[in-house]
């Protein structure tokens, strides 16, 4: 018996976790997690979730359209939740169920190499499971999992002319993250092949990091920052724990700034500024916990720590998702006793340049924490495939005291749409692409401008030209290229007048004779036209007003998304477009000034 215990102790010492776990052993990990009261809600949720998983059948290989990603994410979330619950409780049922899930995936005929995101996700799941459950896996089970990683992942990574290697979006980050974990598991068994693949990964991961340059704006929006940056953190964290590499030697300055910008996109309404293919839901971001500690960005994880204090309430608000289970698991892995610094002070005007320039204006009243305003404004252009772009140049969201009065319509469900316009049609971004037939992707359904009802020029790029100061937070942008052939100049200015009022000013020249100009205001509030120059908005028990300061009498009309969307587009019964239409003067000049205010009284003379 003593010899058996000694042998078990030696085996334990030889197989401490190498991937992501920074503590010296699972025993140290368990002690840290159990001692941190801030993790109580998360820890209890994880055990409940693991118990639910015990009763579910193992995953089977079921394609959704061209993708196996839903299954891959399910396998990943189950392996993470069950493995960690095993180490926190010592209950073998959780380890056995995680192993059952891994072996089922290992026996799939393939991991859908036509979509390498699927392969990378399965590879991440089985690599972490192999490492985290090494001591309870039998030798034959470890061999079977390694063989699956070799034949279904390592062997099928494409040559370097495949776009995943040079892509500057989430494909590069996710696929190289999964590849790195695979190589770390297989390096002793297949040293030459894994060394060659890691050399390729090291030579190409800068392309994924390029998406943050130069100022950190995530050009795919906050949701895809979450997706890509999670795998970037996984990749560099694994190299740190397995190889002792300092992640600060790998990342760029833009990557570090990206964590701050990701925090900036958490708005005062506890939602996202969800430009491009993103939804509004605010997320727990484990990558920000990792960025805060390892990339010297203290406080960027403040919102995540706030949400972690009541995980069930958070899940009830946004709904359960496989990716959410994975993020919560990683939050437990990356948390530490020194985390959770106060949210950093952020200026009232933050402008970020890059592929998709974005400006955030905010005004918080120190004397009244409830009084604050937030505006996010987007530049760039639509014909940029790696950005998930919409025709939304010059569009904005606007909030007063935590209520969003101007909204972004968000993303479509890819699989549903692809059945009707085809996969290529969904992901072509040039003029005339079927993508632009999607209702919520057009400029007609964003808070921007339209001239004579025409959509924006997808090749035109909008740039920010002037920014204000702490005392006068504003931004000006040039939209002229976006309306090529429709006007000579198009300028937009957005200014926060106070924590209770935001002003929007458009000035155009050279509008063609007979063409009208429409300023579109997207909202999910109840809309009441009170006077020819005042519109009331009601939402969440609160009221705001749109004051039309110029011109005197525009035509006011509304469009309901539900009345005009196509059957295969995602429903949104509350989404309304308010169209404020007027004609330019005889010289083709047009000026429009609109104020969002919490007061029914105008900021300027509003007499008829």
Description:
The structure is a single chain. With 608 residues, the protein is an alpha+beta fold. The protein has helices at 2-14, 26-35, 40-54, 69-89, 92-106, 116-132, 139-152, 163-166, 170-186, 191-209, 222-243, 253-264, 286-294, 302-308, 311-318, 322-334, 414-421, 423-426, 561-564; strands at residues 349-352, 358-365, 368-378, 396-400, 403-406, 449-451, 463-467, 474-478, 489-498, 501-509, 517-523, 526-531, 534-539, 542-550, 555-560, 576-582, 590-597. The strands form three sheets. An eight-stranded antiparallel β-sheet has the order 7-8-9-10-17-14-13-12, with no helix packed on it. The model is unreliable at 1-13 (pLDDT under 50).
Topology of this protein?
Layout: H1 2-14, H2 26-35, H3 40-54, H4 69-89, H5 92-106, H6 116-132, H7 139-152, H8 163-166, H9 170-186, H10 191-209, H11 222-243, H12 253-264, H13 286-294, H14 302-308, H15 311-318, H16 322-334, E1 349-352, E2 358-365, E3 368-378, E4 396-400, E5 403-406, H17 414-421, H18 423-426, E6 449-451, E7 463-467, E8 474-478, E9 489-498, E10 501-509, E11 517-523, E12 526-531, E13 534-539, E14 542-550, E15 555-560, H19 561-564, E16 576-582, E17 590-597
Antiparallel strand pairs: 1-2, 2-3, 3-4, 4-5, 6-11, 7-8, 8-9, 9-10, 10-17, 11-16, 12-13, 13-14, 14-17, 15-16
Helix pairs in contact: 3-4, 4-5, 4-6, 4-16, 5-6, 5-7, 6-7, 6-9, 9-10, 9-11, 11-13, 13-16
SS content category: alpha+beta
Distance between the termini: 96 Å
Strand order of the largest sheet: 7-8-9-10-17-14-13-12
Silhouette:
globular
User: What oligomeric state best describes the polypeptide chains here?
Assistant: single chain
What is Rg? Answer: 26 Å
| Number of separate strands | 17
Helix content: 25-40%
Question: Taking all residues together, what is the mean pLDDT?
Answer: 93
User: What's the total helix number?
Assistant: 19
In the predicted model, the low-confidence regions spanning at least 5 consecutive residues are: 1-13
Tell me the β content: 15-25%
Main sheet makeup: 8 strands, antiparallel
